[in-house]
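Is this the right way to post structure tokens for a design question? Let me know if I should format differently. Anyway, here goes:
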């Protein structure tokens, strides 16, 4: 991959850094060690200090050995990376397959001041470049934020003309340090449906495969009905809030949430005069299927 935009020379090699937030389900600081091999500026090592799947590469342009970091044992991936650069850089460069460069680093070891500069800059990039999403809920109608114990469910039908998309959104909210924070967001859009774990935290964004999930609003409501809300909130990074979820109250309130969500879909996808069954909107079909499901359940 390309060399990072932030480059700090530490003697025989450079440390290059770039914060990657284009990965959607993941993000984090990329730390590269570059050195001259012949006349070519070559990527020797790469440390991908990502939130979800941190890992590192020996010799990305050589034999490219990729190994995962175990967050349980290494702690902070960037801290672990800098510790290994400080204390084991020549050894790692040798394993990457660059003996002469490793010897050059041993002959001209990096100064602590330069390493401190690189670490400070890396931590700054990690703070300043983090991708988060703050859904402002501009189309939420008064009364469509439903209190359920320590949670609120915000129901909003969103129109996004700038990307030619629209659809139902369910925002799961809670109070964190006296602020209302979005824990989960389910954007059941027509074109690019996706959901977020911790939009204001790590913003793990997952795009649905509608071939396997089926209709995404129904999938979302089914997760709530199956009792998965607590575990999803935990994954979003809010274990204390997850522990306080009143599951029986959630189940009690779900029929109201479900009915209002489908009503919003129907209101925003009105039937067109003379429309044939083959040309009905997804919202109409959902409404009809749901009506049939309720009739069958009543038998």
């Amino acid at each position: 991959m390309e060399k990072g935009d932030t480059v700090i020379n530490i003697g025989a090699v450079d440390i290059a850094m770039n914060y990657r937030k284009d990965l959607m389900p993941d993000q984090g600081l990329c730390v590269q060690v570059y050195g001259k091999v012949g006349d070519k500026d070559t990527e020797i090592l790469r440390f991908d200090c990502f939130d979800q799947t941190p890992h590192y590469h020996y010799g990305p342009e050589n034999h490219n050995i990729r190994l995962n970091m175990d967050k349980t044992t290494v702690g902070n991936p960037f801290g672990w990376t800098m510790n290994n650069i400080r204390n084991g850089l020549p050894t790692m460069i040798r394993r990457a397959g660059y003996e002469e460069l490793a010897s050059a680093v041993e002959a001209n070891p990096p100064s602590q001041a330069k390493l401190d500069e690189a670490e400070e800059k890396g931590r700054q990039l990690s703070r300043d470049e983090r991708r988060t999403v703050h859904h402002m809920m501009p189309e939420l109608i008064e009364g469509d934020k439903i209190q359920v114990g320590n949670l609120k469910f915000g129901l909003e039908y969103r129109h996004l003309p700038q990307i030619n998309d629209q659809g139902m959104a369910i925002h799961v909210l809670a109070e964190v340090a006296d602020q209302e924070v979005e824990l989960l967001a389910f954007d059941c859009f027509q074109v690019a449906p996706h959901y977020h774990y911790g939009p204001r935290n790590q913003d793990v964004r997952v795009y649905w495969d509608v071939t396997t999930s089926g209709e995404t609003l129904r999938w979302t409501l089914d997760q709530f009905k199956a009792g998965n809300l607590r575990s999803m909130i935990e994954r979003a990074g809010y274990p204390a809030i997850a522990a306080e979820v009143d599951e029986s109250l959630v189940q009690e309130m779900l029929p109201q949430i479900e009915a209002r969500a489908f009503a919003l879909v129907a209101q925003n996808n009105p039937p067109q005069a003379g429309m044939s069954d083959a040309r009905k909107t997804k919202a109409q079909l959902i409404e009809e299927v749901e009506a049939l499901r309720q009739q069958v359940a009543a038998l």
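Format looks fine. Someone answered above. Worth noting: The radius of gyration is 25 Å. The chain has a mean pLDDT of 93.
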